[in-house]
Amino acid sequence: MGEPAKEIAIFSGSFNPIHAGHLMLASYVCEFSHLDEVWLLVSPHNPLKEADDLLDDHQRLEMVASALEPYSKLKASDVEFYLPRPSYTIDTLDQLSAHHPDKQFTLMIGADNWNKLPQWKEFERLLQTYPLLIYPRPGEEVVIPEALQETVRLLDAPLLQISSSFIRKSIGEGRDMRAFVPERAYELILKNGWYR
After folding, report:
1. Which helix (H) or strand (E) holds 192?
2. The CATH fold of domain 7-192
3. pLDDT digits over 109-140, tens only?
4. SS3 category, 157
5. pLDDT at 47 exceeding the cut of 80
6. How far is CA 20 from CA 26, 43, 102, 183, 186, in A?
7. Average pLDDT over residues 82-90
C-alpha cells in the first residue's frame, strides 16, 4: 500500500497585504480539520475585482512567502502567475491536480464567494470534482443543499473582521499596523514604502 494522498486546502486571494486574519484562518484549517496543508495562492487579478490599488504580483508573493516561513504546514503558491489571464478557479485546480497527482485538493472560499458561486466558470463541475470548505464572513448566511453535504463543509472558524483594504488605508495614513500584519510581511511593507 502506498502513502495516502496528502490533502491540501487551496486558499486563494490577492493578499494585498496578507494579514493576521489570513494566517489564523489557514492555521485553523491545518490544526482543526483533516487537511494536511494550506497553500495560499496569490491571485494575479480577480476578474470580478478592480485592480487599481493592487500591489505587483511578485511583491505580494514575496510578502506571503515571508509571512509563511515560520509555518511548516502553510505554503505560498504562484501557480496562477503562469496560467492564462484572467485565471479561473476550476482551471487552477485542474492544473494543480495534473501537476501533483499524489495530492488531493480542497477549495477554501469565504461565505461571500459561496453565495456568488453560480457566477463562477464551470461551477457545477467544480462542485462535482473538488471538495469545498467555506469559512464564515460577517453578514453572509451559508446554506448548503442536502445533495452537497458530503463534499461541502462550513468551517466552524472564528469570524475575523480584518480587511486588507482597512490595513492599506491605515498604512497610507501613517498608522502603525504591525499587530495586524505578520512581522516579516510588515518589514517588507515598511522597507519598500508599499501602500504609502
Report:
1. helix 183-192
2. Rossmann fold (3.40.50)
3. 999 999 999 999 999 999 999 999 999 998 99
4. coil
5. no
6. 10, 18, 30, 10, 11
7. 89
Residue among 147, 154, 180, 156 nearest 166 (CA): 180
Q: Which amino acid is at 135?
A: Y
Residue 190, classed as helix, strand or coil, is helix
CB atoms inside a 10 Å sphere around CB 21: 17
With residues binned 3-state (H G I as helix, E B as strand, rest as coil), the percentages for the chain, rounded to 5, are 40, 15, 45
Domain residue limits, the chain: 7-192
Among candidate residues 194, 190, 183, the one with its CA nearest the CA of residue 68: 183
117 in Cβ contact with 152 (< 8 Å): no
| H runs (alpha helix) in 8-160 | 20-32, 57-68, 89-99, 111-114, 123-129
pTM over 0.70: yes
Burial of 9 (0-12, 13-18, 19+ CB in 10 A): buried
Sheet holding 103-110, edge to edge: 74-77, 37-42, 6-13, 103-110, 132-135, 152-154
C-alpha cell at 77: 503558491
DSSP lists the bridge partners of residue 77 as 41
CA terminus-to-terminus distance, the chain: 55
